[in-house]
Write a structure and sequence with these properties.
- Its cofactor is Mg(2+); Mn(2+).
- The chain has 258 residues and is α/β, with parallel strands linked by helices.
- It is 43% helix and 14% strand.
- It folds into 2 domains: 159 residues, Ribonuclease H-like superfamily/Ribonuclease H (Nucleotidyltransferase, domain 5, 2-Layer Sandwich), CATH 3.30.420; 64 residues, no CATH class.
- Helix 7 crosses helix 9.
- It is globular.
- It starts with 14 loop residues before the first strand and ends in an 8-residue tail after the last helix.
- About 2% of the residues have low confidence.
């Protein structure tokens, strides 16, 4: 999915780009780009790290940036099944590499449209310096700034953060759960281990399973290469919560690998 204005009128001007991602399963990478001459106007658009904004405000900002002819945007939506397949394949691709490839794919896509990118700002994935060097080797004509909390520091990345988060929110709302025929609680948050909504959802699912291990539908709905459910299951297993007294007394552990 990308912006309707495939090749903007200002494409031949020096441009900057911001890139950020949202969530897991699906994982969405979003970018926003504009002429460097428009950079000073970005602050007046009130973009901010999408995680600090309510959903209604994110939607409002997203619709406004779509109407702004000085802005372009694009997204890469990575299906949870694709994440699982890559992370569990014989020759595994780790999450950092998947993230790097997605970001570089967005850069290449915009360059191929004829946009003259000269600067790019990214929220880091892994070591910032190593990531910056990797990007510079791939795209030597672009100056890269890779930083922690870039979505809070640079308005162009804040805009990309909104594009990514709104795209993911909408994808989840429209998501048909093919793996199960059950109604599920859809308040599962971002999928990150530290997300309070994700932690509460997993606690409810483990309680519903009744045996102290992840329920079938919880496993189905999680990206299998992602550690959230595994970590939660291990915590519950260690506590013995939900297990029969026979197993608790003998401290018999759940078998997860054969």
């Amino acid at each position: 999915m990308e912006s309707e204005c495939l090749t903007p009128e200002w494409a031949s001007q020096p441009c900057l780009m911001g890139i950020d991602e949202a969530g897991r399963g699906p994982m969405v990478y979003g970018c926003m780009y504009c002429p460097i001459s428009y950079q000073s106007s970005l602050a007046s658009l009130h973009f901010a790290d999408s995680k600090t904004l309510k959903e209604e405000k994110r939607e409002e900002l997203y619709e406004s940036l779509k109407l702004d002819k000085s802005l372009g945007w694009a997204v890469d939506v990575i299906d949870p099944r694709e994440l699982s397949a890559k992370m569990l394949a014989k020759n595994k691709t780790n999450l950092n590499e998947i993230s790097h490839n997605s970001a570089m794919g967005l850069i290449k896509r915009v360059l191929d449209m004829g946009v003259l990118l000269t600067e790019a700002y990214l929220d880091t994935v892994g070591d910032p310096d190593k990531y910056r060097i990797k990007l510079s080797e791939r795209f030597p004509s672009i100056k890269f700034v890779v930083s922690k909390k870039a979505d809070s520091l640079f308005p162009i990345v804040s805009g990309a953060s909104i594009v990514a988060k709104v795209t993911r929110d909408r994808a989840l709302k429209e998501w048909l759960v093919e793996e199960t025929g059950e109604d599920i609680n859809r308040n599962f948050g971002s999928g990150y281990p530290g997300d309070p909504e994700t932690k509460a959802w997993e606690a409810d699912e483990n309680e519903e399973s009744g045996n102290g291990s992840s329920s079938k539908r919880q496993a189905k709905l999680s990206s299998f290469g992602f550690k959230t459910c595994e970590k939660r299951s291990e915590e519950i297993e260690s506590s013995g919560k939900g297990r029969c007294k026979f197993l608790q007394a003998r401290k018999i552990q759940q078998l997860t690998q054969f």
